């Protein structure tokens, strides 16, 4: 059942152990996360187990639920979500504090991939329905190095409870290593080091409804966990795609970029940055009074894509036939069109006809066929008109 959950959701089940004053303690915490392109749902809680020589205690941690939105802006993952905390924590000697009151607040997350490492920052502020109100602030920063089969991570976390004139806080530094060898789940092992002074009983906070426990926060804990490989999907496989958009003069251009099924994004200053997984991405660029640009890119590594847009020009049509002047036999001929650029088209081998759409303007047009003298003509292409130009070629022998 656990493996099934890990394979479907981003999940983390953590076991922390320590021993203080003849007490052996075991914490079990769970964390489930479901996130797509635009939303994020999290659910977390746990149990605390205390083993004495003569008895065993089991306590539940408060449950936290968050539902919100997430977006990727210029390569930075942003998430914002309301939080709800349910006070089901038991009155035992827990290492994570519980409060006798419902909590509500806000959470925010930032994610960014930098030089092959992955940085993630989260912050939460929760107010509890107590008298007076108790508030808790939690912040943590996590850095992952070499996000592949074997991942090294370093986590900094800060937690503070305060109510009235009293507060308690703790800071932890937690290095750990994760092994993602298997397809459905991974394992990790780490140590939590407390860098702040020992937390003692605060009778005043307990009167306000904070369950601090008698042993406070231990100086270190050993953590062992089972986690979903989904947690590392974005950190392991995200690739930078920088799209640069220029106009015909080489200046930065504005436009609307459509990227596969990810939606449309506005290009304001000539470039835009995406973080994507490996794959094939159709890209379309639309700009006012310009010809649409369509391309497809196979993304395997960090890539810079340069695209140029061209303004629509007034168009006209020129068509005609190339014939033998003596017998009126249709000829297979090349048509050289010269303006600011050269362009060559060919007549139909059966009918000798040709047709081409060109921007309005003056053109030098030459018809050439094997065994015939070439014929050159100066012609004007008029917007919205069809210009007829036939060539009667004279045999060269």
Total count of strands = 30
Mean pLDDT: 79
Q: Which structural class do you get from the secondary structure elements?
A: mainly beta
General form = rod-shaped
According to CATH, the homologous superfamily of the largest domain is monomeric porin ompg
- Order of strands, widest sheet: 1-2-3-5-6-8-9-10-11-12-13-15
Portion of residues within helices: under 10%
Q: Distance N terminus to C terminus?
A: 89 Å
- Gyration radius, in Å: 35 Å
CATH architecture of the largest domain: Beta Barrel
Major sheet attributes = 12 strands, antiparallel, barrel
Uncertain runs are: 1-8, 231-236
Brief synopsis:
With 397 residues, the chain is mainly β. The chain contains three helices and 30 strands. It has helices at 2-8, 203-208, 233-237, and strands at 10-20, 23-35, 39-51, 56-60, 63-73, 76-86, 98-99, 103-114, 117-128, 134-145, 150-163, 166-179, 185-194, 210-211, 220-228, 239-246, 255-259, 263-267, 271-276, 279-286, 293-299, 303-308, 315-324, 334-338, 342-346, 353-359, 361-368, 375-381, 386-388, 391-393.
Question: What does it look like?
Answer:
The chain has 3 helices and 30 strands. The radius of gyration is 35 Å and the shape is rod-shaped. Mean pLDDT is about 80; it is low at about 1-10 and about 230-235. The chain has helices at about 1-10, 205-210, 235, and strands at about 10-20, 25-35, 40-50, 55-60, 65-75, 75-85, 100, 105-115, 115-130, 135-145, 150-165, 165-180, 185-195, 210, 220-230, 240-245, 255-260, 265, 270-275, 280-285, 295-300, 305-310, 315-325, 335-340, 340-345, 355-360, 360-370, 375-380, 385-390, 390-395. The chain has about 400 residues and is mostly beta strands. The N and C termini lie far apart (about 90 Å). It has 3 domains: about 1-235, monomeric porin ompg (Porin, Beta Barrel), CATH 2.40.160; about 240-310, Immunoglobulins (Immunoglobulin-like), CATH 2.60.40; about 315-395, Immunoglobulin-like, CATH 2.60.40.
């Amino acid at each position: 059942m656990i493996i099934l959950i890990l394979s479907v959701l981003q999940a983390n089940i953590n076991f922390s152990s320590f021993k203080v004053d003849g007490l052996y303690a075991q914490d079990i915490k769970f964390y489930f996360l479901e996130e797509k392109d635009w939303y994020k749902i999290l659910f977390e809680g746990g149990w605390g187990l205390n083993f004495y020589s003569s008895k065993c205690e089991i306590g539940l941690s408060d449950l936290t639920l968050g539902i919100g939105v997430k977006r990727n802006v210029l390569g930075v993952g942003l998430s914002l979500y309301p939080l709800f905390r349910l006070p089901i924590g038991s009155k035992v000697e827990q290492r994570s504090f519980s409060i006798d009151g419902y909590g509500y607040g806000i959470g925010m997350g930032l994610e960014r991939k930098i030089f092959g490492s992955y940085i993630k920052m989260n912050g939460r502020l929760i107010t509890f329905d107590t008298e007076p109100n108790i508030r808790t602030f939690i912040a943590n920063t996590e850095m992952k190095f070499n996000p592949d089969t074997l991942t090294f991570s370093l986590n900094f976390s800060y937690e503070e409870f305060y109510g009235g004139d009293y507060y308690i806080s703790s800071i932890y530094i937690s290095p750990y290593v994760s092994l993602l060898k298997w397809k459905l789940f991974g394992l990790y092992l780490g140590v939590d080091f407390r860098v702040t002074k020992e937390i003692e009983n605060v009778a005043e906070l307990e009167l306000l409804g904070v369950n601090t426990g008698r042993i406070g926060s231990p100086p270190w804990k050993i953590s062992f966990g089972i986690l979903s490989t989904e947690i590392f999907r974005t950190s392991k496989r995200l690739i930078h795609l920088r799209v640069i958009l220029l106009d015909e003069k080489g200046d930065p251009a504005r436009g609307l970029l459509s990227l596969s099924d990810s939606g449309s994004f506005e290009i304001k200053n000539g470039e835009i940055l995406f973080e994507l997984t490996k794959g094939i991405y159709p890209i379309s660029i639309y700009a006012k009074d310009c010809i649409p640009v369509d391309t497809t890119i196979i993304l395997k590594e960090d890539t810079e894509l340069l695209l140029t847009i061209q303004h629509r020009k007034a168009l006209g049509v020129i068509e005609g036939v190339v014939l033998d002047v003596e017998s009126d036999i249709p000829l297979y001929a090349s048509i050289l069109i010269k303006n600011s650029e050269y362009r060559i088209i060919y007549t139909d081998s059966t009918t000798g006809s040709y047709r081409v759409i060109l921007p309005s303007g003056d053109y030098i047009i030459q018809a050439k066929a094997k065994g015939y003298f070439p014929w050159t003509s100066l012609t004007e292409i008029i917007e919205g008109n069809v210009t007829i130009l036939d060539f009667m070629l004279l045999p060269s022998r």
